Task: structure prediction
Amino acid sequence: MATVKLIQNKDASPEVLAVFEDIRKTRGTDFINNFWRALATDPVHLKNTWHEIKSTMSGGSIDDMVKEMVYIAVSTANGCSYCIHSHTAAAKAKGMTDEQHAELMRIIGLAGKTNQLVNAMQVPVDEVFLA
Amino acid sequence: MATVKLIQNKDASPEVLAVFEDIRKTRGTDFINNFWRALATDPVHLKNTWHEIKSTMSGGSIDDMVKEMVYIAVSTANGCSYCIHSHTAAAKAKGMTDEQHAELMRIIGLAGKTNQLVNAMQVPVDEVFLA
Amino acid sequence: MATVKLIQNKDASPEVLAVFEDIRKTRGTDFINNFWRALATDPVHLKNTWHEIKSTMSGGSIDDMVKEMVYIAVSTANGCSYCIHSHTAAAKAKGMTDEQHAELMRIIGLAGKTNQLVNAMQVPVDEVFLA
Amino acid sequence: MATVKLIQNKDASPEVLAVFEDIRKTRGTDFINNFWRALATDPVHLKNTWHEIKSTMSGGSIDDMVKEMVYIAVSTANGCSYCIHSHTAAAKAKGMTDEQHAELMRIIGLAGKTNQLVNAMQVPVDEVFLA
Amino acid sequence: MATVKLIQNKDASPEVLAVFEDIRKTRGTDFINNFWRALATDPVHLKNTWHEIKSTMSGGSIDDMVKEMVYIAVSTANGCSYCIHSHTAAAKAKGMTDEQHAELMRIIGLAGKTNQLVNAMQVPVDEVFLA
Amino acid sequence: MATVKLIQNKDASPEVLAVFEDIRKTRGTDFINNFWRALATDPVHLKNTWHEIKSTMSGGSIDDMVKEMVYIAVSTANGCSYCIHSHTAAAKAKGMTDEQHAELMRIIGLAGKTNQLVNAMQVPVDEVFLA
Result:
C-alpha cells in the first residue's frame, strides 16, 4: 500500500489529466503506471517530474536503452524495487536483449563487490585520478 | 590511509607480480592503481577479482564505455569515492565525451530523486511489470 | 515473515508486558505494532529501545511532528519500508497535513537527487563550510 | 578533486552567470558554493536544479529551517559529506540552535538504528499501517 | 516476481545442472533456492558465483557461522530482504542460537546508529587510526 | 571538519569527564577518540551511547573480536569511513589476524555482489525461508 492515494482518472484534476495525456502520447500507450498516480497527489510535482523524465530519458548523446540500464543500476544500488521493475521493463521495450541484461547483472554485481572492497580497505584515491 | 598495506612492487610475491603484469599488458600502461595494491595483500583474491574485472568489463554485448557508465552509476549510489574517480577516468579513456558525462549526471541525479520518491510514497509495483 | 518470532501477549514475560503497557499508556492506544513484538524476543533490547524512542521522539526543542518527518526522511534513504509506513502514520497522527506530506516528498526527492549529483561529481567541500 | 571542472566566473557563459546572479540575490550573499560551479558544466541542468532548489526549499507549509533538517537527514543516510556540510550551514543560518542540532542527531541516530533492526528482523508491516 | 526467469530443472542446460548438482552435494540437500535459479539464466555467471560462494563461505580462518553473521550484517545495511532471509537460515543451520541472533541484532542496530551519528557530525578520523 | 565542536578535556563538564574517565578505564588507555569528543556536545547522548556500546560490544554469547568484524561489515555497507577505521583498529586490538582480515574482505565483497544481484534480479524469497 502506498502512503499516498493513487489518483484514478475520475478523481484527477484537469492539470493532472493533461500530464497523463502527455505520458500516454509520448509513450504510445494507454497505460499510466502507479508512480505517476502517486505523484498526482501533488500536480505541480507530477508535472515537473514528468518533464524532467521526458527531457532526460530520451534523445541527447546517450542511447535511450543505455539510459535505462544506468537507471536500473542506480535503482539497484538504492534498493528501489519498483524502479528496478519499471526500468527493466523500459529497457526491454527499448531493445535490451537477454544477453545484455545478463551482462548488466554481471557489471552491477561486480561494481557492488568492488565498492564494498574499496570502502572496507579504505583505498586512497591515486594522484593520477585527481589530476 | 588504507586499513591494509598497499603492496609495492619490491614487496610483491611472484603471484602478485604476475597479476600486475597482466593488468599492465591488458591496459597498455605501466600504472597500477591503489585498488590492486591493496587487494594484493590477499593474492588469491587479487587474482580472482582481476580475472572478474577483465572478463566482465571488456567485450560482450554491451559497449565498453557504457559498462564504465554503469559502474559510475552503481558506485555513486553506493557512495564509493575511489570507484567514482577511477571509473570516471576509465570512461573518459574509453571515449566518454563531456556532453555524455553531463547527460550521465542528469540520469543519475534523476534516478536518485525518483528512487527516493518511490520509496517515500511506497508505490506498489504495477501488475503489468510482474507479468 | 520476520526472521524472529513476533511475541504475542500470552507468550510475553512480565518484563515484556510492562514495556507493552507503557507503550499503550504513552500512546493512548491498545495497539502494539509488530516492531515491538519482534524486539520482544530480547526483553532488554526492547526495554532500552523503547526508552530511547520515548525520550527522543517527544518533547525537547523540535516539534514532535517534525521529528516524525525527519524519521521518514532517514527511513526513506535507508530503504526501510516498515519504518516509512509506521512513521508516516505517526506523522499524520501528529498533524501532518496532505500539503505538508507532499512538500516533504519534494524535499526528500530533491535531496536524493543532489546527493547523487554531488557524489557523482565529487564536489569538494567549500572552505567556508569547514570554518 | 571533482570529476568535472568547477566553473569560475571568468569562464562562465551568460546563461550560467545569470543563474549565479539569481543565487546571490536570493541568498543575499556574494558566495557561490562549489556545487553550483560543478553543475555549471551543464548550464541547463544548473538552471533547472537551481529552480527546483529555490522553489522547494523556501515557502510553503513546512518551515524553512525544518526543510534543512530534513535535507541533513536524507544526506546523512545517503552518506553525502558535502551535502551534510552545506545543509548544516544552511540550517544554522536559518536559526537551528545547538540544542536543536543535538536533538536532530539523536533522531537521525535512532532512526538509523531502528531502520537496521527492522530490516535485520524483517518485521512485517502491520495491517493497520496499510489501511 | 523476478526480472529474469527462474530456471527449473527441466529447462536447465547440462552446465547449469552440474552446478545445481554441486550445490546439492556441498549442502547435503535437494533444495536449490531461487537465487541460483535466477542466476542460471547466465550459466557462466552462475558457475563463477557459486564457486566464489563455495570457496569463501566455508573453511579458512573465520568460523562458518560467523561468516553467515557477517553476511547478514552486510545484507541488512544494503537492504537485501532475500539475502537476510537466506543467510539467517544459513546461520541458524550452522548453529547460531537465539541468544546469538539477538546479540547480532543489537550490534547491527548499534552500528547503524553510530554510522549515522558519525556521518551527521562528520567526525574527522583520529590520527592514531591512520598510522 | 566536524559539523559540531570536538569537546576538549578543558572544556568538558563534570558529566562528560566522568564518561571519558569510564571510557579510559574500560579500554585501558588514555586516548579518547573524536567520536566521543563530538558526541560530548550532548552529554546525555554521550552517556547513553557509551553505555550502549559498552554493554553491547563486550561479553555475551558472541566473541568480542567477531562483534568488531560485524561492526566493520555494517559500517562498510553504510559507507562510514570513520567507523571502518576505528572498528578495524578495534578488531586488530582484539586479535584479528591479517589472514582473518583478508577473509573478512572476501565475505564483505561477496555479500556486496550478491546483494546487488538479488536486488537487480528481484529474486522472490523461497517459501522455505519464510517458514
Remarks:
- The mean pLDDT of chain E is 97.
